[in-house]
Amino acid sequence: MKKASQKIILLLVIIWLSVFSGYAQEKKVLALSLEDCIIQALKNNLRVAVEVYNPEIAEAQLSQAREMFLPRFDLSLDSQNTEQPSYWWIQGAETIKTDLSQYSISLIQKIPTGGSFTLSLNSYRTSTNQAFQLINPRYGSTLQLNFTQPLLRGFGYKISRKEIIIAQNNLDISENQFKTVLLETIYQVQEAYWNLIYAYEDYQVKQDSLKLAKVSLEKTKKEVELGKVAPIELLNAQTTVAQREAELLQAEALVAQSEDALRDVLNLSQESELPPRLKPKDYPRFEPREISQEEAIQQALLKRPELKSQQKLIESNQLNFSFARNQLLPGLDLNFSYWSPGVSGDRILYLNDNPFLGVIVGKEEGSASDSLRDAFRLRYKNWAVALTLSLPLSNVLTRAEYVKTRLELEKSQLALKELERQIRLEVKNAIREIKTSAKRVEAFRIARQWAEKRLRAEERKLQLGLTTNFFVFQYQEELANARSQELRALVDYNLAWAKLEKAMGISLEKRNIRLSQFR
Fold first, then answer.
1. CA 25-29-31 angle, 5° bins
2. Distance separating alpha carbons of residues 394 and 324, to the nearest angstrom
3. In this structure, what is the dihedral angle of CA atoms 481, 482, 486, 492, given to the nearest 10 degrees?
């Protein structure tokens, strides 16, 4: 009794495991529409994931370039203590000691014309043991404004902002390159998806063809046994079955290969022993549409991100060329300075106001704030204007840079024309492929219909004994080929439209995809 119950339990476990394994196997089938695949690829594709960093890096470089126009704050502190032997009796001490403490605060601001402003405050305190000092310790402060403006070399709004403009162009180029990757990824998904559908449908065609061959083989065996047909017909049937089994194996391999291609572009895990089967939910449709070739070309020239990237590169090269040409000019700088000093300290009072007597009778104390007050009140006004001209006798490196930037500019302009030519050719080829595929779909559809009619007629003739299995097998194979060719033409038609969308640069716009969605 106990053994019987154990057998029952074991049987139930086996049944449960078989049911569960069947359920798990069913869960491994992943049904996806084309749009589902596109969304999945844009989220998980490794190339997209890598490329998304480039615009962010370029944006950080732009922020860094803009920092050149942020004000700069400089602070310096200095303290000195010196001792030196006296070399003259009038110094009043054998060892001359001097203490000096000073600090400087500066605020420097570049301006878009290439010049700069500097506002600085310099203060010091000095004391000494030398005789005959009128103010000891002494405090000094100077408030100074300096303005420097290049008038030839280095002058200009674009020249001074060269790094910022190039960084902005690099950001635009990076974003357009990212758009190019998205366009290519979308097309790769469409190509892999439609090819997988073709592989599945072609496999079904081959499977149906094999079933027909097997049915004919069984029928032929019975007819040979009854002596209705010659034994050679059995050999023909067996050969046909073997051939179609081989074709089915090839179709099965194509399905696996197509699945791997789609799985790769979607970045689905392929490490497990049983990766999920991908089952397309959509089916290629034949919708005849008209499109103007000239309108398609014009739209492509406006929206292709590669063209926008090349145009931005030309702008950067033009700026580099202008900068190199500017560096060939002589240097002529305008310098303007305005400063206000202030001096204070402890004033030494001598007998009869004669320091040579060396008799100190008192002291009037001063402070550092007095010197600062005089400096900020502009009590003593000083200014200076200067022009500085520099004429380098040799400027070989700059001229080499000038030649290099000119060649790079000419090269990028020619590359733009070549890119426009390629885009025009891509659009023309895509439209031509659409028209050709549409005609192929119609032609192969008619061919498939005639193949079906011819096979049915041949099968009726076989029933009447007016033909042999050889011709039936031949027409079955022709029908299978006609079905595969019709499906291939239909898939090519849909791929041609996808290729045209990519050539025109409208795949993102059509699906309302924006770069902000990836940040």
1. 160
2. 15
3. 40
460 pLDDT above the threshold of 60:
yes
Over range 59-87, report the average pLDDT: 89
Q: How far apart are CA 176 and CA 5, in angstroms?
A: 71
Task: Give pLDDT, residue 456.
Answer: 81
Calpha distance 62→163 (Å, rounded): 8
Q: What is the pTM of this model?
A: 0.79
**Cβ contacts of 76 within 8 Å, gap of 6 or more:** 103, 104
Q: Look at residue 14 and tell me whether its pLDDT is greater than 50.
A: no
Q: Mean pLDDT of all residues in the chain?
A: 83
Q: What pLDDT is attached to residue 355?
A: 66
- d(CA 237, CA 221) in angstroms, rounded, equals 9
pLDDT band per the 50, 70, 90 thresholds, residue 18: very low
Sign of CA dihedral 249, 255, 258, 263: negative
Q: Which of 151, 163, 147 is nearest to 110 (CA)?
A: 147
> Is 21's pLDDT higher than 70?
no
| Distance of alpha carbon 343 from alpha carbon 326, whole angstroms | 45
Of 96, 105, 103, 101, the closest CA to residue 80 belongs to 101
pLDDT for the residue 8: 42
Q: Which two tokens stand for residue 300?
A: 């492509």
pLDDT in tens, 314-367: 999 999 999 999 988 888 999 999 999 998 887 777 666 666 666 666 677 878
Tokens representing 424?
Answer: 């025009």
- Of 153, 148, 145, 69, give the one whose Cα is nearest residue 112: 69
- Other beta carbons within 10 angstroms of residue 507's beta carbon come to 23
- Asked whether 120 and 144 are in contact (CB, 8 A), the reply is yes
Percent of the residues in the chain that have a pLDDT greater than 70, as a whole number: 86
The amino acid at residue 200 is: Y
Which residues, in sequence order, are CB contacts of 449 under 8 Å at separation 6+?
none
Tell me the C-alpha distance between 286 and 212, whole Å.
29
Which ranges of 348-465 would DSSP assign to H, the alpha helix? 368-376, 396-463
Six token digits for residue 90: 């009038």
Nearest-Å Rg of the Cα atoms of the chain is 45
Question: How far out from the chain centre does Cα 397 lie?
Answer: 34
Cα(189)–Cα(267) distance, integer angstroms: 11
Q: Are 173 and 312 in contact (CB under 8 A)?
A: yes
Query: Alpha helix locations (H) across 464-505?
Result: 469-504
